[in-house]
Amino acid sequence: MKAFIAKNYGKKEKLHLTEIVEPAINPYDVLIQVHSAGVNVIDLLIRNGDFKLFLPLKPPFQLGRDVAGVVTKVGAKVSKFKVGDEVYSSSGNHHLGTYAQYISIAENEVALKPKNLSMEEAASIPLVGLTSWQALVETANIKKGQKVFIQAGSGGVGTFAIQLAKHLGAFVATTTSEKNRGLVKSLGADLIIDYKKEDFETKLKGYDLVLHSNKDSKILEKSLRVLKSGGQLISLVGPPTPEFANALGLSWPLKLLINLISFSARKKAKKLNISFKFLFMRAEGKQLEQITRLIEADVIVPVIDQVFPFEQTNEALSYVETGRSKGKVVIKVK
């Protein structure tokens, strides 16, 4: 089968289209013929080596987590899916490779594709949907009337998280550029801040949750200050925390290193009585099933900027890297 691989880590590393062996399936795996693959910022960060500390990959390695496609084989102990099922998934941390014609994924990380979405639309959902769900529902337990600040509202996670937060009954503030104001407003944002002209710290006060996605340390400090005492900051970009290191079962030297890396941020949060957490999305088929119900009820709609053909996978990654995409970028494989 054809697949794109990275021969080395690096910001300037281009993926190479290569012929490789079709993946084998374990007893609890399904083999999916990839119709479409979603492109995420995390794919770039993994390629760059930013997560090599806790997600080491031996070059050459494959990239891509989001997939929509058709089941072509099932493992001997698979009970939820059959050949011919249209499914979607965000694969586990150590099982990347949706920039390919086929991928093998554990059945508990897979869900049936929403009936009202195309393959391209479905491929845009899993990672941003699960990230939003795990932040807003599982971790923050957002309630009606609470105030939520979602950074980068026109991005992949932002466009999904705004819709989910509104469904949960929250008041939603977000940052975006003036040209994307109409988009985030249509998704339900209540307060829109032009990050090019306005300082969000002067506009926001007493928030219950910040969904943080900017690696600038000054933005992190400002984000902590807009929260009320007892509020929560959930970071998608780090620094990773000791709780995260423990959950991953990392070695004690890595735990110590992560403790040091995040010490300053955790200290500032503690001083303000803020809960600081790092979220690294977990593949979870059952949560995708709940997301599917919201999509089929038209509570949440996908936002797609552009669809690239398989041969232009590098161009798709480069476009996402510019930071100018609205919603998601998708690769059409089949």
Write a structural description.
The chain is 32% helix and 26% strand. The chain has helices spanning 41-48, 119-123, 126-139, 156-167, 181-187, 200-203, 217-225, 242-248, 252-271, 285-296, 313-321; strands at residues 2-6, 16-19, 29-39, 61-62, 66-74, 86-90, 102-106, 110-112, 147-150, 171-176, 191-194, 207-212, 227-235, 275-278, 304-309, 328-332. Strands 3, 5, 6, 7, 8, 15 and 16 form a 7-stranded mixed β-sheet that branches. Helix 11 (313-321) links the parallel strand 15 (304-309) and strand 16. Helix 3 (126-139) crosses helix 4 (156-167).
Count of strand segments: 16
- Overall pLDDT metric: 96
What's the Cα radius of gyration?
A: 19 Å
Beta content: 25-35%
Helix fraction bin: 25-40%
Biggest pleated-sheet summary: 7 strands, mixed
The first-to-last residue Cα distance is: 12 Å
Gross geometry? globular
Q: Structural class, please?
A: alpha/beta
Helices, by number, come to 11
